[in-house]
């Protein structure tokens, strides 16, 4: 089968599953409980900041597992202009709508890879004087870290392979897979 035909069927482009649908569900529930427990002890004014586009699937599931009043806002940053390699040059494409001054902000990501995106957004949001600033990611690739970032709520550690699904894309595709998989290297080379 030709690569083009393969890539038209998303399931066919996947060579290995890294996080199954069941593991996704368990992980999101665990993170929801941890976050609920952490903020529950304080008088919280919780704002979840989702980083577009990758976090939208995880964030939609996560908010339903957090048993606290909260608000949601989004930012869009871009770092992977050419596909699979981080340029290290993170740009703000769309900023928040809301002021975060004096609020408890939880940044939500689909993946921390080099750490460039998180470190940039943390620096930027700290300047806006939130009461607290924590970070949550569904996936973590510790082997790829270039910039050190402290992750407060971490889903699953994965190896150094290009992951797609559950919000993560390759060339804007595969975000709709309900699990996380590794893409066929032939497709990456196309
Ligand atoms: O730790 P890093 O090396 O910075 O990589 C992580 C970032 O890369 C991806 O975003 P991307 O720029 O691909 O945009 P997307 O969210 O729209 O997929 C991902 O969603 C994270 O935001
Ligand atoms: O493994 C990845 N997959 C998709 N997007 C990404 N952005 C950083 N790392 C990845």
UniProtKB/TrEMBL annotation:
<comment type="similarity">
    <text>Belongs to the purine/pyrimidine phosphoribosyltransferase family.</text>
</comment>
<dbReference type="GO" id="GO:0000287">
    <property type="term" value="F:magnesium ion binding"/>
</dbReference>
<keyword id="KW-0963">Cytoplasm</keyword>
<keyword id="KW-0808">Transferase</keyword>
<dbReference type="GO" id="GO:0046100">
    <property type="term" value="P:hypoxanthine metabolic process"/>
</dbReference>
<dbReference type="InterPro" id="IPR000836">
    <property type="entry name" value="PRTase_dom"/>
</dbReference>
<dbReference type="GO" id="GO:0032263">
    <property type="term" value="P:GMP salvage"/>
</dbReference>
<dbReference type="GO" id="GO:0006166">
    <property type="term" value="P:purine ribonucleoside salvage"/>
</dbReference>
<feature type="domain" description="Phosphoribosyltransferase">
    <location>
        <begin position="22"/>
        <end position="170"/>
    </location>
</feature>
<dbReference type="InterPro" id="IPR005904">
    <property type="entry name" value="Hxn_phspho_trans"/>
</dbReference>
<comment type="pathway">
    <text>Purine metabolism; IMP biosynthesis via salvage pathway; IMP from hypoxanthine: step 1/1.</text>
</comment>
<keyword id="KW-0547">Nucleotide-binding</keyword>
<keyword id="KW-0660">Purine salvage</keyword>
<dbReference type="GO" id="GO:0032264">
    <property type="term" value="P:IMP salvage"/>
</dbReference>
<dbReference type="GO" id="GO:0000166">
    <property type="term" value="F:nucleotide binding"/>
</dbReference>
<keyword id="KW-0460">Magnesium</keyword>
<keyword id="KW-0328">Glycosyltransferase</keyword>
<dbReference type="GO" id="GO:0005829">
    <property type="term" value="C:cytosol"/>
</dbReference>
<dbReference type="InterPro" id="IPR050408">
    <property type="entry name" value="HGPRT"/>
</dbReference>
<keyword id="KW-0479">Metal-binding</keyword>
<dbReference type="GO" id="GO:0004422">
    <property type="term" value="F:hypoxanthine phosphoribosyltransferase activity"/>
</dbReference>
<dbReference type="GO" id="GO:0052657">
    <property type="term" value="F:guanine phosphoribosyltransferase activity"/>
</dbReference>
<dbReference type="Pfam" id="PF00156">
    <property type="entry name" value="Pribosyltran"/>
</dbReference>
<protein>
    <recommendedName>
        <fullName>Hypoxanthine phosphoribosyltransferase</fullName>
        <ecNumber>2.4.2.8</ecNumber>
    </recommendedName>
</protein>
<dbReference type="GO" id="GO:0006178">
    <property type="term" value="P:guanine salvage"/>
</dbReference>
